[in-house]
Amino acid sequence: MPEISLLQHITDPLLTQKGVELWVLREDLLHPGIPGNKWRKLKYNLQAAREQGCETLVTFGGAFSNHIAAVAAAGREFGFSTIGYIRGEETLPLNPTLHFATQCGMQLRYLSRSDYRLRHEPHFQAEILKTAPKPYLLPEGGTNLLAVKGCTEIVSELTEPWDVLCVAAGTGGTLAGIIAGAAGKGHIIGFPALKGGEFLQKDVTDLVQAYSGLTYHNWDLQTGYHFGGYAKHKPELLAFIQDFHAQHGILLDPVYTGKMLYGVFDLLRQEYFPRGARLIAVHTGGQQGWAGYAQRYGLELDFLR
Question: Is 36-142 a domain of CATH 3.90.1150.10?
Answer without folding.
Answer: no
